[in-house]
Amino acid sequence: MRFPWSLVKTMGMHLLRSRMRRLTRPPLVLMLEPLFACNLACEGCGRIREYAAMAHHQMSLEECLDAAQECDAPVVSLCGGEPLLYRDLDRLVLGLLSQKRFIYLCTNGLLIPRWLDRLPRTEGLTWNVHIDGLENTHDTITGRPGTFREVIRAIRLAKEAGMRVTTNTTIYACTDMHEVIVLLEYLTELRVDGMLLSPAYPYECLQSAPVSSASIAERTRLAPGGCLSAPKEFGIALAPMEQKNAENLMSQERSLFLTRAEVAKKFLSVKNELRRFRLINSPLYLDFLMGLRDLPCAAWASPTRNVCGWKSPCYLITDGHFCTFREWQEKTPWQSLGPGRDPRCENCLVHYGFETGAVFAAQKSLRDSLSLALWQLGR
Questions:
Q1: DSSP annotation of 248
Q2: Which helix (H) or strand (E) holds 263?
């Protein structure tokens, strides 16, 4: 099976209960960012730049566990930043498991050896390792020579320790899809449990001219933790070092991103070859990436909680932060978001919104439901 049977069963029961309670926007995956700090500065990562001024802050263990209870999604994706830098990671994982949640620990992989003996071996915990190509490509994107070899070593150690390991590969404009196929073959040899492919998203903070902290502070309110909750027309304040390099970064990284048509062309070029691999992309989402079908964005099913509060509207776009999950659900203007409604969403095809969209689309179609069922039961 693509996912543990216990996860499939839990997700099915969660959707059934949501339907019986007539919930229109039930959360499926909580994107929990206990910190923004990272030990790498990868190209195309807007997170470390958008929240650069908050890199020294961390959520408390209690805040993290309370957020999971408040949202009550069956799956928690621990991300950031680099979650393996979080001081209470072992206690957080155990706390989430005691709440009977499934955890995807999203990491660049460099610190896995540090935590292997401190985290439980259970199907409820999956290490989701970021790897963007073979050695030269991955090291270039991470900006640090040797990271590919360190990550591969960490994956081997995790598998030898009996851990469940998946990978996440971002597709950029410069990505060679033949190299991606070779990477998937190599990861298959390493016995990883699943591989995710997702196109890069052009973060808003990389496209807006930098604005000083003082300028924003004059026109915005402070959210929890002192984070800025900025109106759409203003950029995000960058830390001094980031401001210095912002123009170079924006020019360099604009060339990384793809339009919808360009994404479809890349994925169509390897359509038949992708069938050979244990992808955790659903067939509905893959068809969407290839431009063969449409899917609704269900970003509301993947709420983000971080140091600043409940991030609105979604994991990738920041208009502000709410103090409570309920406020985030009720006050985010969902009807004005998505392709065709908000220009920032026009070229977004990332799995946070559209893989969850595939889940809800399948509930309305017997054919799509069968397609997902057969995929889940596949090798």
A1: H
A2: helix 260-268
Query: Tokens 């909750």, residue?
Result: 229
CATH superfamily of 27-359: pyruvate-formate lyase- activating enzyme (3.80.30.10)
pLDDT in tens, 219-242: 233 344 446 443 333 233 323 333
- State the pTM of this model: 0.87
- Of 82, 79, 138, 88, which is closest to residue 118 (Cα–Cα)? 88
Q: Could you tell me whether strands 194-199 and 164-171 are parallel, antiparallel, or unpaired per DSSP bridges?
A: parallel
Look-up: residue for tokens 């915990």?
125
Q: Tell me how far apart the alpha carbons of residues 90 and 15 are, in angstroms, rounded to a whole number.
A: 29
Distance CA 164, CA 192 (A): 8
CA pair distance 184, 191, nearest whole angstrom: 11
In sequence order, the 6+-apart residues with CB closer than 8 A to the CB of 343 are none
Helix axes 147-160, 135-142, angle to 10 degrees: 110
Cβ neighbours for 230, distance < 8 A, ≥ 6 positions apart: 216, 219, 220, 236, 318, 319, 320
From residue 92, give the alpha-carbon distance in Å to each of 16, 103, 109, 129: 28, 10, 18, 19
pLDDT, tens digit (0-9, with 9 covering 90-100), for 85-119: 999 999 999 999 999 999 999 999 999 999 999 99
Nearest one of 106, 46, 84, 66 to 310, comparing CA atoms:
66
